[in-house]
Design a protein that fits this description.
heterotrimer, A mainly alpha (301), B alpha/beta (383), C mainly alpha (336), A: 301 residues, ABC transporter involved in vitamin B12 uptake, BtuC, B: alpha/beta, Rossmann fold, 7-stranded mixed β-sheet, 13 helices
Chain lengths: 301, 383, 336
């Protein structure tokens, strides 16, 4: 039982990070109906921003991690938001309205570009991410050890998700985003500046990915150019599992994938770990393509 | 269309010119001996390739400064495998066909050496691998040699070390299933350890590139091992040790020669205390030959400490040059025969004798991480 | 009618010339020769993927998975079953065995394509490719992660280019036939095709099965050329390289895609010469120029934004340009 609780704890901290990344996928898909394959790479860049800025920021605040930690996260969020908007402006906007395949291939191209650019310029070797969260043991029994890191990660992730919910439900731009996801053309006719709202969607998604990256690197402190690939793919699966376009669904999907993966690794074998998410994806697409919380929609003819 | 066709034509011609250029050199420049090296200069295990290159370059410069071999200087060509097995054959083909080398040094990772060795064998070019420990490598044919020990020996050394020096009987294994080296070493370790009466209480797996090992480590904790054995590369191993300590797994953690990199302590930090791994040499070995090499290396490469790959690269090149000197020519078959006759060659990483299976018989060193530094612990000699 | 014979004769010619060249291949520069063999294998992969992605308008990101199945099956067959049957019987049996096994996987992957389209299908095929890799990694009798070593080197110029000829011939005939027009119909408008009585389900599965079969053949050729394979070689990056060839060649043009496969294979080797030729540039710039995937990714984005129909155009651009060049058949095209 103790071991199970420990595994659940491991799974929840991983899952809450997947959830944050999944939100970015699901928002973009909800509005533009395409998979932003490069989202995982925005995540990767976020981790590098943290890696490079954390020592200086920690120094500036005299090693006070309670201030330095949030500042590093904020900086990464700002940088990645700009990056997300640039991606949209340069690569995706010229293709709006084109067949999804073409946009998808472009997104894969953007993703490969970041991976290889960082491999060439920064180097492929993994680097150690500095400790941003004070390391203490919150709970320590024979079987269950809860450190400060997973708690901070889970707490921050849920805080950010709550913030996102507030933005989407209770602000003007959030209302516009929802309008776009219902019907982009109609929203445009209602006088909504579609380009601006789409850009804002990329800002939100990329900022969450950046925050997720700092949290991820704090638990698993190894930063390298390919680190976004698998978390990105799995977060996408989480978004589909929860019902793509559905925000609570993405959060739920992220937690489910994180916990399932951890349990399979712990109780079956890690060799099947990477197959778990894809198997879930195939099953869900075959038997409930709208996802757990998605509403059923008939395909338009 | 025309423009594209022209572009393609020009490209092919450029390629052909390079080819001819490479091939034509041999007849005119009889005063040099061409040696090729294919290494992972970029990619995931780039530190292996770069360190080896440093070692090889030092050996080449030394021999050329001393007037070369029988009056002929060594000319060395490097090819990058990008840390990918599928790039290795192409690199070796290029060394043989374009540069017409007399012998080849490389690779470190067994998977890449295995991919390229059949080409060297088929072309009759002797190949010396500095660091591939998988026994299959030299089984490819009689032109493939190595100057390091093999995994069955390393697995045996580790099993005996854990059973005797650490006095453990319950061991958990955490291996990298994407990595042939890790899977092989785990297997050889398990065979010896069980024959010594030990028990493998957990057999967990991970994949190269993973960052989260808590699920496996939590499962391992449930089996209450005395020692954890992690036969992987330094990148993941350091993270594994760090996460193990976070889960209160404070027992000794042991690894193989894949741990050897300056990155190990950088990534693992304080968590690396109370860990051990096998290696080919120890930088704090007090013998004169090691200390001289360490000093020369530091002088040349920005005050850095050579890792085992640098030492093995240096030794591999030196052993090859010794064979060329004894062969008295750059004839590939003569070099092969001379390599096979290598006996008691005094290298930096121990005395090397090439046995009838073209493997090196030499000792292994066990390194302990203590007070944030790598410390020589003991030497284990082959029977 | 005459053209039909002409095509068959071309095929026969290709096979005979390949056979002749294979008799003297030992005397070639092996480095150049290896590029030629890789180019041939890539033609098979790209043209077979073109049937799925180009002609039928599906989107597969799992071609490396089919290739892996073919490679491993053929390697197991030559090791355990047909090893003693000799090159002229044993090897083709092993290759076809690999192709058939990949075709079975093609059925499994093709079935979800009935319900999914576009980006979802791409992700599912990507997932399948990864699952295949994970499964092979866990199969001990093929060496698992340690890889499959000591595969006999049976692939030579003849086998590669005879199969290239066969693939080009059979796929271009398939697509041009009355039956084959169905693939294009599924691509252009699935609903309209269904309404016209075309069994879209069957066409999609046929495309996947045929494409997978040839990818399996290519995998077998690859395995018996490099003689050592590991599951990690068949990652999703490899699938992306195949997609890249289809896109550069122009989706739907077999000759164009074959041309692109050769171009990209040669380009990959040429990029290795960059440090030798441009030695005067700073090292960081060389590292960027050397990275072929970086160049490919930029190419991919630029092509998609500026020429989404492919670098050379959609459909059979080779024939169009040929006609333009020679002035022949212009009238036929004008009336069409």
């Amino acid at each position: 039982m103790g071991e199970f609780l420990q595994q659940l704890m491991n799974g929840l901290s991983l899952g809450s990070i997947y959830a944050l990344i999944a939100l970015g996928y699901t928002m973009v898909y909800g509005i533009l109906r395409f998979i932003n394959f490069a989202h995982g790479e925005v995540f990767m860049v976020g981790a590098f921003v943290g890696l490079w800025s954390a020592p200086a920021i920690a120094d500036f605040f005299g090693g006070n991690l309670f201030i330095a930690g949030p500042v590093v996260i904020l900086l990464a969020m700002v940088v990645c938001s700009i990056l997300g908007v640039l991606n949209e402006r340069i690569a995706y906007r010229p293709l709006r309205g084109k067949p999804t395949i073409i946009v998808l291939i472009t997104a894969i191209g953007v993703s490969l570009f970041y991976q290889n650019f960082f491999q060439s310029v920064v180097g492929p070797e993994p680097r150690r991410f500095p400790d941003l969260i004070p390391q203490t043991r919150v709970l320590e029994t024979d079987y269950l050890i809860v450190g400060s890191t997973p708690l901070v990660v889970i707490g921050t992730a849920f805080g950010l998700m709550w913030l996102l919910r507030f933005v989407v439900l209770h602000t003007k731009v959030g209302t516009a985003m929802r309008a776009l996801s219902f019907n982009l053309q109609a929203a445009r006719l209602m006088g909504i500046n579609v380009d601006r709202v789409v850009a804002f969607t990329f800002v939100l998604g990329s900022a969450l990915a950046a925050a997720a990256a700092i949290l991820f690197a704090s638990i698993y402190p190894s930063v390298h150019p390919l680190m976004g690939l698998f978390p990105g793919l799995k977060a996408f699966v989480a978004a589909v599992l929860g019902g793509i376009g559905n925000l609570p669904g993405a959060a739920l999907g992220g937690l489910i994938i994180g916990v399932t993966e951890t349990l399979v690794t712990g109780y079956v074998s890690a060799t099947y770990r990477d197959a778990v998410a894809f198997t879930i994806l195939i099953l869900i697409l075959l038997f409930r393509p709208t996802g757990l919380l998605g509403s059923t929609a008939t395909e338009k003819v | 269309m025309k423009r594209i066709a022209t572009a393609l034509g020009v490209a092919l011609m450029a390629l052909a010119t390079i080819q001819c250029g490479g091939g034509g050199d041999t007849a005119t420049e009889a005063d040099t001996i061409k040696i090729g090296a294919y290494l992972s200069l970029t990619g995931l295990t780039a530190t292996f390739g770069v360190s080896t290159r440093h070692g090889v370059e030092m050996a080449v410069d030394e021999i050329n400064a001393a007037g070369g071999i029988n009056g002929r200087t060594i000319e060395i060509y490097f090819e990058d495998t990008q840390s990918k097995p599928e790039e290795a054959p192409s690199a070796v083909n290029k060394l043989i066909a374009a540069h017409n080398v007399s012998a080849i040094i490389g690779e470190i990772a067994s998977s890449r050496t295995l991919a390229a060795a059949p080409i060297a064998q088929a072309s009759g070019v002797p190949m010396v691998t500095p660091g591939s420990t998988n026994p299959q490598v030299t089984e490819v044919g009689d032109y493939i040699f190595r100057v390091c020990y093999i995994d069955p020996f390393q697995g045996e050394v580790l099993a005996k070390f854990i059973a005797n020096s650490l006095g453990a009987t319950r061991v958990a294994v955490l291996r990298d299933v994407k990595n042939d080296y890790s899977v092989g070493l785990a297997q050889y370790f398990t065979e010896t350890f069980e024959s010594l009466g030990g028990e493998i209480v957990a057999n967990q797996a991970y994949s190269e590139g993973d960052a989260d090992f808590k699920a496996q480590l939590t499962a391992i904790r449930g089996t209450d091992p005395e020692v954890i054995f992690v036969p992987g590369y330094y990148t993941e191993s350091a993270l594994i040790v760090k996460q193990a300590r976070e889960l209160n797994l404070n027992m000794p953690i042991v690894g193989g020669d894949g741990w050897d990199s300056s990155k190990l302590l950088e990534i693992g930090g304080d968590a690396m205390e109370n860990t051990y791994f096998t290696n080919h040499y120890a930088a704090d070995d007090t013998t004169a030959v090691v200390q001289q090499f360490v000093a020369r290396y530091a002088e040349r490469f920005d005050q850095s400490t050579p890792d085992a790959m640098a030492v093995l690269g240096y030794d591999a090149a030196k052993i090859l040059f010794d064979a060329i000197r004894r062969a008295g020519s750059d004839d590939r078959t003569a070099i092969r025969d001379a390599l096979a006759q290598t006996r008691d060659f005094p290298g930096v990483a121990g005395v090397t004798t090439i046995d009838e299976n073209r493997n090196a018989k030499k000792s292994a060193v066990i390194i302990q991480v203590k007070d944030g530094a790598l410390r020589y612990y003991e030497t284990v000699n082959p029977d | 009618m005459l053209r039909k014979y002409w095509k068959a004769a071309t095929l026969l010619g290709v096979v005979l010339v390949s056979l002749l060249i294979s008799q003297v291949e030992g005397s070639f520069n092996q480095y150049i020769f290896q590029i030629v063999i890789y180019a041939g294998i890539n033609i098979i992969l790209a043209v077979s993927l073109n049937l799925i992605n180009g002609h039928t308008g599906q989107f597969s990101l799992g071609h490396a998975g089919f290739m892996a199945i073919g490679a491993y099956t053929a390697a197991v067959l030559t090791r355990d079953v047909v090893g003693s049957w000799g090159m002229w019987i044993g090897f083709p049996v092993a290759l076809i065995g690999g192709g058939l096994m990949a075709a079975v996987a093609g059925v499994v992957v093709g079935i979800p394509s009935l319900r999914l389209r576009g980006d979802y299908l791409a992700i599912v095929t990507l997932g399948f490719g990864e699952i295949i890799r994970v499964i092979i990694q866990n199969l001990d009798f093929v060496g698992g992660a340690r890889g499959f070593a000591a595969i006999p080197k049976l692939t030579d110029f003849f086998w590669v280019f005879a199969i290239v000829g066969l693939v080009m011939w059979s796929l271009s005939n398939l697509v041009k036939s009355t039956y084959g027009k169905g693939f294009l119909a599924v691509r252009d408008d699935e609903i309209a095709a269904e309404a016209m009585g075309i069994n879209t389900t069957r066409y999609k599965v046929t495309a996947f099965v045929t494409g997978a079969f040839f990818a399996g053949l290519a995998g077998g050729l690859y395995a018996h050329y490099v003689t050592y394979i590991t599951p990690t070689q068949f990652s999703f990056i490899l699938s992306i390289e195949h997609v890249m060839m289809v896109i550069v060649g122009g989706m739907g043009s077999n000759v164009g895609v074959a041309f692109a496969a050769v171009l990209l294979t040669v380009l990959k080797e040429l990029l290795k010469l960059v440090p030798d030729l441009l030695w005067f540039l700073p090292e960081w710039l060389l590292r960027i120029l050397e990275n072929r995937m970086l160049l490919f990714s930029i190419l991919l984005v630029v092509i998609m934004i500026l020429r989404p129909q492919g670098l050379f155009g959609e459909g059979d651009w080779v024939r169009r340009w040929w006609r333009k060049l020679t002035g022949r058949g212009r009238k036929a095209e004008a009336t069409a």
